Amino acid sequence: MSDPTAVASKPHGAHEAHGAHEAYHEELGFWRKYVFSVDHKVIGIQYAVTGLLFLLFGFSLMMLMRWQLAYPGQAVGWLGKLLGDNRMPGGVMLPEFYNELGAMHGTIMVFLGVVPLAVGGFGNFVLPLQIGAPDMAFPKINMMSYQCYFLGGVTMLGSFFIPAGGAAQSGWTSYPPLANIAGSGQTWWLIGMIFLITSSLLGSINFIVTTIQLRAPGLTFMRFPIFVWAQFVTSFLLLLAFPPLEAAGVLQLMDRVAGSSFFMPSGLVVSGQVAANAGGGNPLLWQHLFWFLAHPEVYVLILPGMGIVAEVIANNTRKPLWGYRSMVYALGFLGFMSFIVWAHHMFMTGMGTVMSTFFQTTTMIISIPSVVILTALILSLWGGSIRFTTPMLFALGFLPMFGIGGLTGLPLGLSVTDIPLHDTYYVIGHFHYVVAPGTLFALMAGIYYWYPKATGRMMNDFLGKLHFWGSFVFMNVLFMPMFFLGLAGVSRRLYDGGASYQFAQPALHYNVISSWGAWMLAVAQIPFIINFFMSLKTGRKVGANPWDATTLEWAAPSPPPHGNFEHPPEVYRGPYEYSVPGRQTDFQPQFERA
Amino acid sequence: MEIPWTVEAREDTGLNNGKIGIWLFLASEVMLFGALFASYILLRVGASEWPRGHTILNVPLATFNTIVLITSSVTMVMAWASLMRRKFGVFRVYQAITVLLGGVFLVVKYFEYSAKFHHGLLPHTSNFIAIYFTLTGLHMIHVIGGMAVNAYLWGPGAKLYKTNPEWFTNRVENAGLFWHFVDLVWIFLFPTLYLL
Amino acid sequence: MSASHDVDIDKHVRVYITVFVSLMALTVFTVWVGYQNLPIGQAVAVALLIASIKGGLVASYFMHLISERKLIYAVLVSTVALFAVLLVVPMLTVNDGTMVEHPGGVVHTVVPAHEGGHEGGAEGTPEATPEAAPAAAPESGAAPESTPPPAAAPTPGGAQPEPSHN
Which pTM does this prediction carry? Predict the structure, then answer.
């Protein structure tokens, strides 16, 4: 434990350098300042804005799909003209195009939207500030990480415009043999993924080293805000889980481009013809490598959100979080367990009962730390002086939504109940509850909470509440029916939503409800988009600590200058000293000596 | 603004930033090659036929390459040791030999691959050949990357020694860690593909 | 640099040379063992053992792991544990056969004759889509028993049938 009163020695005179660096900063041209910046705050905003744009784009893809699901085969003239005959001839969506939309919706939301916003955006912007650091440990690598993400995004978007066949169409899961024999969009998908994985790896290394090495004097691990812990665990997940998918991507590229048969079994017959390759491969190999990443990936999707919710709840209840230590241990245990549950996505692949039991057991166990974290967050509300600010509304909304998402996952984690539910809309309902009114709500809370730090202005509260209530209602209208659709047996990835199946007829109206939920959800985002841009100019100007918060980022000016802090901060206590008895104010920041 | 602990070790962790960074990177590389080894195992165990390595691959050539790579690992660590002793000239010699030995490895690989192509042994021929090319190919890319970094540190990068010898020594050490890892992967690759 | 530091480095250099010689010897040994054409099981065990010793030497002495900080160990131990999981678990979910070697250096996998290796899970799937998963069988290798899997029937509308996986 480092001596809280000691000041970390800096290599050269930091104060003298400060003035020189401001002058240096003025000399940076447009490109070095805004495009190829090495400042974590600029990079964080780049990630966040790009991520939000991809979220909007991915949402738009889904809104297109939802027309086809609610009104299969019905023409939309103007869309047909816009998208052309090879996608929507006469305004009716082709099944191949539906599959493109589906595969790319998933890919874009997960890899280009949520993770870049949650980890790249919030992680980059907030983490160094919250630990009292001047920047990330490796600023140039940080910049490269964003550029790799950008290139990956361009590749993925570009794949829509490939003349022969368009974008990837084999689900975000890209299972062989289908993905192996699919059109060239799949190759672009694989190349795009390699860029994105590289970006992730560079970022995760940066985060881990920064957290360990650049924390301010007095900031011990058990004084970290929960957000810092969440990002720390997330970074390890990214570091160790992504490489197998990179390997799998290379293998699939070899199969598609070099004619190998890593995933192509012997004797494969496609459309009546025997496949020409050597065979001997195993499609399940892809599934193992894919899910080895993709399961930890879902924890990457949720953990930063949980961290944000923890910060917002502590701040808006004006009391310390309940169960800080339990939450920290739960986060760590969750991270560890997330590596050994992956084959619960593969219960239907014919594994023996021993291995199936193993994965069911680990899956049941992993629900425990999740519940610990959710319970601690809920208990943190008890006895609090709750301020129903916009970030707090989103944080509160997150709690029951994540609860529903988590609980609905339980039958999927037991192989017996997974049998009727696997690959149905029930699964889609489950994971969307966790990611959409789960993580996305948490990220919205983060945006409203940290916007004043990044811009020096508050977002409009009325528009924020409009955004929240609209989103909360329509998220549920959109996703709740999916559980019933799935229980009725309707499979996912059907381009007509089950309309061609007799047994599905009684459940098809759920598709209509969901679609209207989606379109109304889009309308509910309009106040947010307006607010986001309008507040840049007209938002109420604020100082360093508009929320009366306790963590280190609120010691820096709003917005922070290059180098972040006017004086190197020091930490004197834990992160959530709210309502300390005997004090004038109801909070005692970590960075204030008295 | 200076990033602290770039050169000196932070007291409580005892490490500088770059060293933690490179070890984390190597951890991710362990998972990358691990996934490929896992793929090899799954493919082999599930295959109806699988040749013993020496029936198709050139063991003497690969043995020679193994010796080359191990030697280059020694010269790499000697390069770093010379810097610790502040013997810059000796460092340059060892570093140059390391890069050259890497080059020898690549040349041998060129002959090996050419022979395979010449005999019509390509990834689409069989999964054994496919995984052979994939594993050794990815390893080869890492050799090239390592060589590039080492060449940079021998050449233009060596200027840093004059202004900040400690920082430069750390960089060479970290590059060395990567190079040893490349050697480590080959130590497992070689028996797996060629001798089993 | 202090004189004591120089002495330290001298000791290290001696260690490096020793390790180098050991690595050379182990390389020769492993190649020799390779030429002995041991049964595949033993060959794997011996090769892995020698490789681990060699790797251990490189890691401990060239990479200085033997005197490295706990933090680095912690990262590596977790990584190696995960590496082991990745190596072993997929095979356990898929492999039901035993490997048999034939003269001439060809290794066959023989799957028990009573079924294709499935123990549970695949029956009773309420799949309404035309079964179009020619690659559903985890084993591609049961040589005496392999029959061409059912052909993928072209579906109306030209859409590629999707395998029923999540």
Answer: 0.89
